Amino acid sequence: MAPIAVTPLSPPSPTLDNTSKLTKAGAETILSKTISNGSPAVADLDASKLIFTRNLSPKNVVAPNSPEVWSQNYTSDHMLTVRWTEQSGWEAPEIRPYGPLSLMPTASVFHYATECFEGMKAYRGFDGKVRLFRPERNARRFLQSATRIALPGFPPEEFLKLLKKFVGVEAPKWVSEPGQFIYLRPTMIATAPAIGIQRPREALLYVMMVMMPSLGDPSAVPPSVTASAGTGSGQAPEAKRLAAAGMRLLASRHDMIRAWPGGFGSAKVGANYGPTLVAQGEARARGYDQILWLFGDECFVTEAGGSNFFVLWKTAQGRTELITAPLGDGVILEGVTRASVLDLVRRTRPDVDVVERKFTMHEIVQAADQGRLIEAFGAGTAFFISPCSDIHFRGVDVSLPLAKGVTADFARAIRQALKDIMYGSQQHEWGVVVEEEKI
Question: What is the Cα–Cα distance from 390 to 406, expressed in whole angstroms?
């Protein structure tokens, strides 16, 4: 399949449409109190107040696929922090040496899951420039997640200014070679030291950079990297097999539900992830890579692990269709990679019908039985575009063509087209160039 050419699309307006009416009203109340739009009762987030404190004990940069990278806890020299209080609003942001946070044991985040985060990457292009990929979408989702759990709102454009400044400071050292990337984790937590179920009165927004392996690239995983190198569960060899042979999925049982209509599955909050780890551990123990999360007696397909999920099949009428679960009911996350896949296919593949609707595992089984199942893949920041080889569904093994030696050409073409934007091989508005600073 030939590489896909991409044309620009207009970004969506920053709304809170994916929440229920009641939740939306509550979120808008929080926004009205924490974003003053020019007449501040409290201070807005303001990138112009940024303070820089140099790390006088810098770290060494380690090799891209070293054990330190596979440990996924080797950070850059600095982090970005901004404190917020109910009384005063946002304080001056600071880029300062990476290090521990000081929190009281009674802090809200420890007791009531008042925490949200984002996952992003900064890429060193083959043209030498550093880029972020559609960062305005991450900023908008970060705001949505924060207001969903009563954390303070902020002007997304100011957050983006701070993010670009932070990347610009760290990138010359930590993303120095073309084709490299580094992972960014923007986070917000409630920090007020008081037990009691109440809206947070203090919060901390912080961003850190972590060196991460290329989890979807088999060439990036050396055979010498094993569980003893600090990965905890043999993640490196598992990632190598996954990238080469495809992702194996175990469909969730009827008594396991990740998210539900009107809930908080559409917000990127820690409470969405901790409860899934038992099921993920079961999947790994049985030889699978992730759980394919189903919902309801109908077995509606939602997400694969922490990734959005796509199926490419032929309809009974003979049309080629790319299908994924819809937004709007609070069950799935509004993934940046998800949106990019949909935008890309709609613009470049008129022969493929793009459908966002509820669909069931029974439909996948039927398509496989009738020879209509072409490909399936997960889409997210960490594993990027990950083709699926097989799915175990309550006693039934569904094998995709990838498991039989057929190349996942559709997913590979999407992956390459997006990489071309991320690394500057194709100039596109989704690849936002960051100005670097020598410090």
Answer: 13
pTM tops 0.90, yes or no: no
If you ran DSSP here, which 8-state letter would residue 75 be given?
B
In the chain, where are the structural domains located?
21-212, 247-407
Question: Which residues are registered as beta bridge partners of 378?
Answer: 309, 386
Percent of the chain whose pLDDT exceeds 70: 84
For domain 247-407, the CATH architecture is Alpha-Beta Barrel (3.20)
Q: Are residues 242 and 260 in contact, defined by beta-carbon separation less than 8 angstroms?
A: no
Maximum separation of any 2 CA atoms in the chain, in Å: 66
Comparing C-alpha atoms, which of 68, 47, 65, 218 is closest to residue 139? Answer: 47
Task: Give the per-residue pLDDT at 382.
Answer: 85
Question: 304 forms bridges with which residues in the sheet?
Answer: 292, 307
d(CA 212, CA 384): 13
**With 0-12 CB in 10 A as exposed, 13-18 as middle and 19+ as buried, what is 28?**
middle
Tens-digit pLDDT profile for residues 92-149: 999 999 999 999 999 999 999 999 999 999 999 999 999 999 999 999 999 999 999 9
Q: Output the CA torsion 406→407→408→409 (10° steps).
A: -130
Query: Taking the mean position of all CA atoms in its chain, how far away is CA 367?
Result: 29
Rounded distance between C-alpha atoms, residue 272 and residue 32, angstroms:
26
User: What's the CA gap between 370 and 274, in Å, rounded?
Assistant: 38
The CATH number of 21-212 is 3.30.470.10
DSSP letter for 54, please. Answer: -
pLDDT of residue 3: 43
CA distance 407 to 245: 10
Distance, CA of 203 to CA of 104 (rounded, Å): 13
Res. 251: pLDDT tops 90: yes
Supply the pLDDT for residue 233: 42
> What are the pLDDT digits (tens) for 265-302?
999 999 999 999 999 999 999 999 999 999 999 999 99
